[in-house]
Amino acid sequence: MRQIALYGKGGIGKSTTSANLSAAFSEMGLDVMQIGCDPKHDSTRMLMHGRWIPTVLEQMYDHKEIRSEDIIYQGFGNIRCVEAGGPEPGIGCAGRGIIATFQLLEKMQALYGDVVVYDVLGDVVCGGFAMPMRDGYAQEVYLVTSGELMSLYAANNICKAIARISERSSAKCRLGGVICNAKNMDNEQGLVEEFAKRIGSKLVCFIPRSNSVRAAEVNRMTVIEHDPASNQAKVYRDCAKIILENTDLRIPTPLALEELEELAREYL
Amino acid sequence: MGGCTLTGALSVACFIPGAVTVVHAPKGCAHQTFSMLHALMNEAETRIVPEILVSGLSDKDVIFGGEDCLRQALDRAAEKKPELIIVVTSCVPETIGDDCLAVCREHPYAERTLYIPTSGFLGGSAKDGENAALIGLSALAEPADPVPGTVGIIGEKNLESEVEENFAEVQRLLDLLGLTVSVRFCRNAAVSDLRKLGTVSCFILRDGRCADAGRELSRRFSRPVVSGFPRGLSGSVSFLQETGKACGLSAEKIESAVLQETKYQKKMLERFANLAGSRVCLGAEPFEGTLTAAREALACLDMTESPNGINVRLPFYLPVGVSGTVKMLYLWRRAILHG
């Protein structure tokens, strides 16, 4: 079973990328599960044709005996969709919610299939959001970033978390590479490619900005489902293939803030 | 007493008749803290059963926020129609960011609800909890004109053994100065008594442990503070001088009290005249200051300290005034005369 986690700054397109990669994996005939690890619980919405599925945390406390059908919903391409859920903004502890979700999924033996895709909230704001990287869950992390400095900054922070977690002898978590979800900036691909190189990794995929993503989203579908013949669908399929074939997993070397800023200046 | 702020805050808040204390925490925090208090209560032979309610934060509350949980605990507390609801918190609501103050202010019982932000281990130690509770509870009192000749006792340790004996000794000294204690903050004092805090002419702290609270009360009510209960014999004399001065008494009045006290001390020490010439070896000092008080008593009784002397124990708590010294001397005499 391949366990892949996508991390990156909020709003960078992790959920869109995750859902399209899951759809592409499914097209390859793989048994896929996607787990949204974000309190806003919209990771799997395009796979579920716009449906907001009940979250694990809602169900966990509403049912005395929770069953797998209470939290796992089948979406496009028979992809098993799960949303961890969490508190409303500004209250409670979403990180603890992620931990509780994983404890339950583990207990229910719900983590199975050929590929499990974890779509994790932006920055690793607390230990809870690093949970998918620990205990052998997400063994391959892919950083989703654009060429914007704050996006690279968040990606660099996630590298710090991976590097820290990797120090433990039991840790299996490694960096698989960087996915550039482009914002149409000048020199964007070169910048992200260089960033990936400097952290000791590589750019695995460059996803250009495309209207087909918007079109798919307003129709509550992934690009793969909505416009399977589009160039954008091909990009996602290629990316999925590269990830599946990727065996080059590394412990990253995060950059100092000054170096990161200098890098961004170089590519202005 | 060790532990987190919760332990310290509860040791103050639990001893206000007519009040209910709500602990916003998981059940385990309240249980652990109360077990410690219970053990101390047994030791101090305190028979009060404190009114404590725990909100019982669960894993669900940690994830989704514990404000509802606190609200429900306040509802349960309000059903008892207490004079006061005191809310203290563990580190869990602090960690997850519950806005406890807002919940307390929005509650129908808000007028009689007092939130004391303690925050468990995040707020510091038990000592910090005691100070937070004393400072928090002082909000019950409005600043007022001082009533001459009155003092307030601050921060008596409710679970300290011999707390009433120590108070009696302080009261004896205050009688010499013609002063009365109008509030013991917070030792079995009803809410109506606590509200008198602003009227006293001087605050007397139990000891340095409540110095933070003393500073805050002094600032808020603009009153002088006496830093602690008297330690030993000379400590009693200086306590009279310091307190008399703080309360604005005349030099003659203070001098007269000192004279009376000196005579009293002489009379008390005569009881132990048969210890003169004894050589003793003092035990380990449990609290800083005990050794000084003990050596002073030795000198007054013409006793000497020697490593080869008879082993005598120092009291666990600092001897308060003459009565504390006398108790220590009884212990010594038993060891010297009877082994």
TrEMBL record, chain A:
Source taxon at top rank: Archaea
InterPro entries registered for this protein in UniProt: NifH/chlL_CS, NifH/frxC, P-loop_NTPase
GO molecular function: 4 iron, 4 sulfur cluster binding; ATP binding; metal ion binding; oxidoreductase activity
Keywords (A to Z) from UniProt: 4Fe-4S, ATP-binding, Iron, Iron-sulfur, Metal-binding, Nucleotide-binding, Oxidoreductase
Gene3D superfamilies: P-loop containing nucleotide triphosphate hydrolases (3.40.50.300)
Name of one Pfam family that matches: Fer4_NifH
Family (UniProt): Belongs to the NifH/BchL/ChlL family.
Record's protein name: Nitrogenase iron protein
Source species of the chain: Methanocorpusculum parvum
Lineage: Archaea, Methanobacteriati, Methanobacteriota, Stenosarchaea group, Methanomicrobia
